[in-house]
Amino acid sequence: MADQLHHDNQDGWVGKEPYWKDAVFYQVYPASFKDSNGDGWGDIPGLISELDYLRDLGVDVVWLSPMFESPQKDMGYDISDYQAVYDRYGTLADVDTLIASCHDRNMKLILDLVVNHTSDEHPWFKESRSSKTNPKRDWYIWKPARYDPDGNRIPPTNWRSYFAGPTWTWDDNTQEYYLHLYGSFQPDLNWENPSCREAIYQDTMRFWLDRGVDGFRIDTVNKYSKRTDFPDAPITFPGQPNQPAAEMWCNGPRIHEFIREMQEKVLTPYNHALSVGELSNTPLPSQVLPYVSAANRELDMVFEFSMIRLGTGGAFHGKYLYQPYPLSELKAHVATWQTFLEGTDAWHTVFCENHDNGRAVSRFGDTSSHKNWEGSAKTIALWQGTLTGTLFLYQGQEIGMMNMPRGWGIEEYKDCESMGFYEEAVASGDQDRIAKTMDGLRILARDHSRLPFQWDGSANAGFTGENVVPWMRVHDSAFEDGLNVKAQKEDEESVLGFYKTVLKLRKEYGELFVHGAFRHLLPEDEALFVYVKEGVESGRRALVVLNFSAEEQALSSRGVTVARALGCEEGEEARLLITTLRERERLGIESPERLRPWEGRVYVNFAEGA
Ligand code: GLC
Ligand code: CA
């Protein structure tokens, strides 16, 4: 791996496989990773102090969530100065040190590029709102009011924003509305304006590329082009003033042109700096392909959200009214996105956590007992580690961090989206809706993944000093259940130890796991997730069998034998490559057809060292 970790001299689109396909990415949420100075907020020096931990885990690229100057109303996704560092996170010099420290370890660093909108405290917006004739007026999206038949002022369209409420806020000073797909404190930039685009390229991208960062995770990448006729959205929720309207501002008419321009003017000239786009509301492979087909020269890869949004009631209105779903649905999404790139020049990502979702082990696994927690955290590791695409881990996933305990109340939730939906439920006066929203938040809220990282079993889990009040409460499991890095480091068979092993195997057999062809077996099965990965050139195969249930499951009763699934020829033997079970639990697993509760295994059709 080490020697693959340099950029191609060509522009990275053609020829040799680029480094980022086989690389393991790791997302750091700076507020919650490690506090170095005892103010209760994680910071960049804290992150630097743990780079060796990440390297040892097997991480190649760090994605750092926003650490820019910001009023922090949406945790830094509301930027007021792209070239300054929020002082709780550190200084520009700290970022320079971070870049150098990553590179010294043969790791790379990508930043979060948030350019659909700025904070309303960004100087560009302050200018824009200062008068209708200000040269930056057109850098944001301003529209006059409409009036209803009774003469009441209403917004230019009926669109609902992500955090509840309308996408428009009235500005008294200039007597117009401005557009914001997210909070009213996040006005959308007007990408139709060429000087605005050039300022974005220069101030937010080249500035950091010049300092040595290796690329960007691009926030909201498919929302820069809106429909410019601003029609009302169809009524999906009668009686509501604001309607879901993603088709009005997502994947809009000029989106591919804008992204190609960004690639051509900024990313390609910087030796093809890496780009991974956040592609929400785009569930069809035919819509995704144009963004990631190499021939189109847009993005290296994107995050697609069908799987991770399971259980939500869509992105709007009912998002936090939890909708149960069968395992077969999860598997179908995975199968779609594992196979959509076959025969194309596209590439994709693999992930099951980020800072906008609940923890995977609490959503897709089982935390009802310590044993099931461990089994499911490892099964998830094996699942993710054997899928085709670039693997992204989120901080704490590698130790099996969980959602907040169910007993914690709404006062522990800090996220503006959680607050928007909760307050909306409260305002409805409907007790059932309040209870259901709270229940949904317990599973799906963005807050869960933002709890302080669990380094050890001390009072604040080693995230910050013992007497400090951290910005979010530390999960009890850090001290009560030994769910922390220190305890897991001392135990090679822990979740952490298992992740390390899986990441090594993933690299050793990259042809199978990172690049292999995916074949789904038993797609209708509601307990087992079974698939074959095949090395395209060598014909080597791996059979991945994951028990996503708390009961023993037999493959044989489903008509599957390991040897047949692997296509073993006469005399050829299947070999167990890895199981999630601890050594002492492995007794009796010679019968390969039976899986323990929350056990995952991989069998291969080739000999060791072959
Ligand atoms: C993206 C981010 C999310 C943020 C939103 C607005 O979805 O991942 O955290 O709230 O964009 O910038
Ligand atoms: Ca700090």
TrEMBL record:
UniProt entry keywords in alphabetical sequence: Glycosidase, Hydrolase, Maltose metabolism
Glycosyl hydrolase family 13 catalytic domain span: 27-442
Similarity comment text for this entry: Belongs to the glycosyl hydrolase 13 family.
Pfam families: Alpha-amylase
InterPro entries the UniProt entry points to: GH, GH13_cat_dom, Glyco_hydro_b, O16G_dom_2
GO molecular function terms listed in the Swiss-Prot or TrEMBL record: alpha-amylase activity; glucan 1,4-alpha-maltotriohydrolase activity; oligo-1,6-glucosidase activity; sucrose alpha-glucosidase activity
Gene Ontology biological process terms in this record: maltose catabolic process; sucrose catabolic process
Entries under PANTHER family matching the protein: ALPHA-AMYLASE FAMILY MEMBER, MALTASE MALT (AFU_ORTHOLOGUE AFUA_8G07070)
UniProt name for this protein: Alpha-glucosidase
